UniProtKB/TrEMBL annotation:
Pfam families: Lactamase_B (PF00753). It comes from Ferrimonas balearica (strain DSM 9799 / CCM 4581 / KCTC 23876 / PAT). CDD domains: metallo-hydrolase-like_MBL-fold. This is Beta-lactamase domain protein. The keyword DNA repair does not apply. Gene3D superfamilies: Ribonuclease Z/Hydroxyacylglutathione hydrolase-like.
Length: 340
């Protein structure tokens, strides 16, 4: 098969750029000040703003809210109205075939399709990914690689259907393969399909090449131990842009100070990588987080000659990582301040 994984020559200047001079000391910020600094970019990235909310306890995936102090159960949340997103061609070579809450991106190459994430379960893989590809005029038999950003079931859950019918190579970071090989997974959900069987393992700084397209892979721990974040080219009417995709957006692991700081540090590290790569497009694997759900209608109404709504420019596109860096740091500072 045409898939290649390497540690690319093109990453040498990127990684070299991360050797920075020591930062000059700046006045220490408290938790609220740090969150407010992160929120400076919330207008562009409104889907990330709740990460900066210090007024609510951090959630733990798989745990239900506890009863109130008086022993009464908390009121049930109103059932959210499900809003689907139609399968859409977003760039010349990039397509959206996800749901209204979880993304599945398809990168078209000269030798087949790279699918990024597989949704919750087999039913969604069939109804959204398979059917969505056909709606877009793409052949699901051309799926050569399924790249799973991290080992939570809303991103791997439909893999069984896809592997059974189309036999793509399944790619995850080594840390996430090890996580899924535990006898009992710490986080489960009845909506999630089966975890994949170990296939292709990648590490930080590797690349994945299929035909004329190369994805640079970075392990960015925080959301999970082996979350993969990606850098890859997209084309708009033949003009090349660079997309960065943050592989794990939410703070769903509770008030763990060390993990929050790890998240913050990796957001800053990936910010530098994305800037050096010239990334001017930001994506995530949840369409409410990267505002895909809002930008797709803008794309549909785009006139000839108008700017692409996903192309933000290098400076603006990477401000999201400042928000992620500062607001996860603010959550860690909140824990520190509670001990004083």
């Amino acid at each position: 098969m045409m898939m290649k994984m390497t540690r690319p020559w093109l990453l040498t200047p990127i990684l070299a750029a991360l050797t920075l001079a020591p930062a000059q000391a700046e006045p220490a910020l408290n938790a609220q000040q740090m969150a407010e600094r992160g929120l400076l970019h919330a207008d562009t990235f409104s889907g990330m703003a709740n990460i900066c909310d210090l007024s609510k306890p951090l959630k733990v995936a798989g745990q239900r809210p506890k009863s109130g102090a008086d022993g009464t159960s908390r009121p049930k949340r109103e059932k959210r109205q499900r809003r689907d997103i139609a399968p859409t061609q977003v760039f010349d070579n990039l397509y959206y075939v996800g749901t209204g809450s979880v993304a599945s991106w398809v990168l078209q190459t000269s030798e087949g399709l790279i699918l990024i994430d597989a949704l919750h379960n087999n039913g969604e893989a069939e109804a959204y990914i398979e059917a969505g590809l056909r709606t877009l005029g793409l052949d699901p038999n051309d799926i050569k690689i399924l790249l799973v950003t991290h080992g939570h079931g809303d991103h791997y859950g439909g893999q069984e259907y896809l592997v059974k019918h189309y036999q793509p190579k399944v790619v995850m970071s080594e840390a996430e393969w090890r996580y899924l090989e535990q006898p009992v997974l710490p986080v489960t959900n009845p909506r999630w399909g089966k975890p994949p069987q170990r296939d292709v393992s990648v590490n930080d700084g590797d690349t994945l090449t299929l035909g004329d397209t190369t994805i640079a892979l970075y392990v960015t721990p925080g959301h999970s131990d082996g979350t993969l974040s990606l850098v890859f080219p997209v084309q708009d009417n033949g003009t090349t842009h660079i997309a960065s995709l943050w592989g794990g957006t939410g703070l769903n692991f509770g008030p763990i100070e060390s993990q929050l700081m790890q998240y913050s540090e990796n957001a800053e590290r990936f910010r530098q990588i994305a800037i050096t790569a010239g990334a001017d497009v930001f994506l995530s694997n949840h369409p409410t987080r990267d505002v895909t759900a809002e930008r797709l209608p803008m794309l549909a109404q785009r006139e000839v000659g108008e700017a692409h709504p996903f192309v933000l420019g290098v400076e603006r596109a990477n401000q999201v990582y400042e928000l992620l860096r500062d607001c996860s740091h603010a959550q860690a500072l909140k824990i520190q301040e509670s001990r004083r």
